[in-house]
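Sample entry (143 residues):
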Amino acid sequence: MEQLNFAQLIIPLLTALGLGGIFGAYFQSRFQHQKEVKEDIHQLKRKRYGAILIQMITILDPERLSKTQAFRPDLTDIEDLKEEVKTEMLNSVLFANDEVIKAMAEFIQTPNHSSYIKTASAMRKDLWNKKTKIGEDVLKNFG
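Predicted structure, serialized as tokens:
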């Protein structure tokens, strides 16, 4: 009788541990996959946002065009850059948050330092969830 009670206790216990292990492995694998996807998206945003900001600052300061052309020889003049920023905005609908898209649209309508800073701030917040106090006065060092 004692052996029967022991068997009745051990079989459900082993079954529970086996199922728990399977569920644990499944959820751990799923969590790891989601983490990798988020990291990939973050890296994509960093690269795209960096390229967009370089294009935008070149529009504001055309003397930088030769430096930009070192990476993108297909952009031959400021009009090409403006078209590229428009294209980037349309593509960003796939990955950027609403504030970034709105700020880029404002820059396209009115390319100036203020709209550039607004776009950079929106991108920074999207990437790092940080607010910033950077203003136009910072750009005076660059322009």
